[in-house]
Structure formats: C-alpha cells, structure tokens
Amino acid sequence: MKPLPSLLLLIALLLTGCRTAPAAAPVSPTVAAPETLSLPAATVTRVPPTETPLPAATALPRLSETPVTLLPLDGPAAERKAEYSGMAWYGDNLILLPQYPNRFAAETEDADGAVFVLAKGEILAALDASPVGTLTPRPVPLVWDDLPPKVLGFEGFEAIAFDGETVYLTIEASGGRMKGYLVRGTLEPDLSLLRVDVSTLTQIPLPANVPNKSDEALLVLPDGNVASFYEVNGAQLNPDPAALVFSPALEMLASVPFPRLEYRFTDVTPLDGKGVFWGINYFYPGDVEQRTDDDPLAARYGLGESHVPGGPVERLVALHWADDGVTLLDEAPRYLQLRSDGEARNWEGIVRLDDRGFLLATDKYPETLLGFVSAP
Predict the structure, then answer these.
(1) For residue 335, which of 359, 309, 307 has the smallest C-alpha distance?
(2) Which of 38, 57, 168, 328 is most buried when burial is the number of CB atoms within 10 A of its CB?
C-alpha cells in the first residue's frame, strides 16, 4: 500500500496535463485585433455582491407605480417586425431604430432599408388629444453599404445616439462568442437619408459571453466623446461592470466604473445639465441566467405595487455621469405599472419628452408599443 502517494501524484499530474486553454474568440477580419481592444481592468472598481438576500415579498416596502400611456401607431412602423432596439432625438424629430432596418423599404432607390421618424409636435398633439391620437411614423431611407456581410453573425442594431448630424449605432453579433460593434454615420438635415459609414466599424470588448447580450445603450458626452453600456451588469454575470468611452473617431479612450445593476440595462436618455441621465432596467422571467434573490435596489427601496419577486421588472433608474465613473442617484427607481395579464414589455428605447416625462418603445415583445411615462 506504500506506493499509494506516488500513484495519487501520478493521477494528479495526468489530470493536470489533460487541461487545455480555452480557444480564443474569433475576431472579424474587418475590425482591429483583440489585443487593441482589451479592457484596462485596473481602471475598473470591483463592486462586490451584497450578502443580504432579497427579503420576502411581505417584508419589502411597496412603491407607487407610474402608468404607461400607450400611443397607438399605424403603418409599417406599427408592425411587430419593427422590433425597435433604440430611439433618439435629432433636433425636434424622434428617430426610431428598428433592429433590422432592411425589413422595410424606402422610397430612395439605392436604400438598404429604413428607420422611422415622428415630429415632436405630432407626439405632443397626440398626447393632448382625448382619446390619445394615433401616430404614423414616416420612413427615413438608410444606406449601410453591405454592412451585414462584414459582420459575422450580424444580429442587427441595438442602440442609437446623435451628436449634431453625426449618428452612432451599436451592433450585436453572434457566431460562436457574442460580439459587439460601434459604427458612425450621418443623417441629412432634411431627413432624406441616414448613411452608415462601414469604414468606421469598431469592435467593442464585451465583459462576458452571455447569449443575445451586447452593448445596448449609447450616451454622447459633453466633450463630444461617446459612452457605450453593456446590457448585463449584475453581480453573477458581470462582477466588474464598466462604461466604455470612445472618441468621435471611435478610438477607445477609457473604461469607467459602472454601478452594479441587476437585470438588463437597455437604453438611456441624454445627459441633462447636471450630468443626470435615466436608463431602462428590465427583467424578463424567461432570462433564467439573470434570476436572483439579491437585488440591491429592491432591498433598499422596495418593489412596485404590481411587481412580485421573480416576476417581470419594468423600472427606470436615475444615474449620474462623471469622468471617474457612473453612480446611481440615491432615489427609488421609477417602477412602471405592469400589464394586468402580467406579460412583460421589453422596453428597449427611451428619450425624455421635454419636462413632461419619457417616451418608451418596445421591441416585438409582446408587440410593438410606444408609451409615455409622466415625469416624477
């Protein structure tokens, strides 16, 4: 029996030798090599998960909720295939971004698809009508110069932001490991054409490989740079969340700390004069990888009246941007009143509507919806 230690050592060595390094993630040949895109981890502050579990439903305070006023849509933009993944103001015009613009025809002969536009005056008039008026978004031709073939596993656009006539968009892609991209373009002042400049295509380093998750929000900063936000910032899937800052030329400049935020983070409003912006924080119960009994926001402030632990979460959170990091404001999230049937609405677009409140848009789940939420 004395040879047993040697035998155990031999077995351990064999097991160690069997381990292989994980295969490197494939990188599209159209973008920079991955070593130029690595996150500078030293600039990211780790946010450890809280050890306090979410209290039982009966122990959580109940918060009043804000109802969503739906603005009926008509025409092609109302179809479920619109699958809006973001929206942004271009002056007094609201641009709605379909995830796949090529699903829609535009009047321009050489266009590859279309985004949609609504004038602010139309929206305000519809809100002030009784009953609420119906809106018919108009197509804006989009040209992307054979963009999809240049992105392996192209899964459409996910976010949009404007800085003057310059438009920034994020793209999601799969095909093995999830990938994200940032691209720049221009919108003609008369709304006659949105052109995507494929030569600016830049890969965004993702902090995790979560199926169907990439950067879903963009924020233009006061200095003209643009910040990109990953969709998943919970403790279990992304323990070191960060916002990435890019120059107008799409050179990655920095990563700054982002707060721990359970569930999805799907879009943001522009900054106000105090550096405050709002984001959509959403949970679909089918996203089992994001289920948790450790939601610091609920534990601190409570749940909405129609919300229950483990069910859909539809809420807006207020954040503050600073060059050294993003922080959550110390105030309760704005819970949205859920549908009476409990079906989750996948809100993926948000903008401010002057001082009246916010406009929200869903993708195709449960259907194409444009909603209004009043200001606090």
Answers:
(1) 307
(2) 168
| Identity of the amino acid at 260 | R
Q: What angle do CA 107, 122, 89 make, to 5 degrees?
A: 75
Report the predicted TM-score, pTM, of the whole model to 2 decimal places.
0.85
Rg (CA), the chain: 22
What single-letter amino acid sits at 31? Answer: V
Inter-CA distances, 237 with 207, 211, 213, 350, Å: 9, 11, 11, 24
What's the burial of 211, exposed, middle or buried (CB within 10 Å: 0-12/13-18/19+)? exposed
Domains of the chain: 65-374 (2.115.10)
For 276, the token pair is: 């405050």
- Beta pairing partners, 202: 182
